[in-house]
Fold these 2 entries.
Entry 1:
Amino acid sequence: QVQLVESGGGLVQAGGSLRLSCAASGRTLSSYAMGWFRQAPGKEREFVAAINWSGSTSYADSVTGRFTISRDNIKNMVYLQMGSLKPEDTADYFCAADPSGYSSITPRQRTAAGWNYWGQGTQVTVSS
């Protein structure tokens, strides 16, 4: 069983930065794809970014150029560096893990259905 715990959320002004962290336990996730999703009140969970076992990344158009996903396989950690934050980035952010060893992030993995394990989320609020 894989456990994921997010941290690093908070309140930030528009234009600011935050770094979210996801700590994984239960097994070594170096062969897993790892992803970040977000869900705003009243909206569906949406894809933000993902990184596969080889370091191949994929981003939602809305965050490309502003967010960077990275992983530290030794520490079993995944990070989401968020910059140039906008009020529309306000949401609960969730870490996800998938054991599929694809060579790149698949279209299915750009949806919530493509992931096996989820964290509880961390809240990000961007004030204008």
Entry 2:
Amino acid sequence: VKLMESGGGLVQAGGSLRLSCASNGTSFDFGIMGWFRQAPGKQREQVALITKFGTTNYPDSMKGRFTIARDDTANTLYLYINTVVPEDTAVYYCAAGSTDFDSWGQGTQVTVSS
């Protein structure tokens, strides 16, 4: 399975962004899917996850401005980021698997200007 992120780029602080993650597989029946990010000089951190049943989970630090959604008919995972801040600057990765994150995308760069 190959995952490919898109939608990153340069955005002004206060703006919004939608990231997409498409799968080239014939099935999008992942038990779990998620978004992670890694800022320069920092460890990768989880942003959000969603199960095949639609249950979502956000770390406390990500609650409020991030929304994860999946469209199984379009084989696409989304991440909506509202009111971006410079600290959101990072490479964002999507990941998926049956019970763990076995497949990863190459990442998409998000840069927030102040």
